[in-house]
Design goal:
Elements: E1 2-5, H1 14-25, H2 51-58, H3 73-82, E2 86-91, H4 97-112, E3 120-122, E4 133-136, E5 150-154, E6 166-167, H5 172-178
Parallel strand pairs: 1-2, 1-4, 2-3, 4-5, 5-6
The structure holds magnesium ion.
């Protein structure tokens, strides 16, 4: 079984890291509150005159490297590998890739270990990647081909209106059993 995990807002906590970076850069302008996060692209939840500032933050050196790890994510990845699941990270870098690509690898090395950097797949078209399940916070994922994986949404405030299966690192075992990725007997406890 191949499990593809998106990186940002599935493993790396962009939703915490972005407001932190915003406050450091613009202490006088409050960041968008969690309750006001309606869009997958964070820039769309800021007024048009601030969107270039959003882009400046996420493309700046250190932003991706310093994102915190999502609570429970690293432990879950270790457990999934122990259960024999082939886990890969499937992530789309920014078009402004200069810092993002390197720092995504550095982030994986720090939080999941050097060996796991061999399991990083960088692509702008996830539909071309083979797998059984893709866990991703993006509401709709399209590409050049019909995807072979099933999309399980990682629950985030901006995707709550979207239909389909979803999970968090609090309920991932049950969610992946219901999707047939894990056998019920393999759930701990
Ligand atoms: Mg994401």
């Amino acid at each position: 079984m191949i499990l593809l995990l998106d990186q940002d807002n599935v493993l790396a906590d962009f939703e915490t890291g972005f407001p932190t970076a915003w406050i450091a850069r613009f202490p006088g302008i409050p960041p968008a509150a969690e309750a006001d996060r309606r869009s997958f692209q964070v820039r769309d939840d800021y007024p048009s005159h601030l969107r270039c500032e959003v882009d400046a933050i996420i493309s700046s050196p250190g932003f991706y490297r310093n994102l915190p790890v999502m609570q429970g994510a690293a432990e879950a990845v270790v457990e999934l590998l122990q259960k024999g699941i082939d886990v890969f990270i499937c992530t789309s870098p920014l078009s402004q890739y200069q810092n993002c690509v390197l720092e995504k690898y550095e982030w994986v090395e720090e939080h999941l270990g050097t060996e796991f950097t061999k399991r990083v797949i960088l692509t702008r078209d996830k539909a071309l990647v083979r797998g059984d399940i893709l866990v991703d916070d993006k509401p709709e994922i399209r590409g050049l081909a019909a995807p072979q994986w099933r999309h399980v949404l990682y629950d985030q405030p901006y995707n709550r209106r979207c239909p389909g299966p979803r999970m968090t690192w609090s309920n991932w075992r049950e969610a992946l059993v219901s999707q047939g990725l894990l056998l019920h007997e393999t759930i701990r406890g």
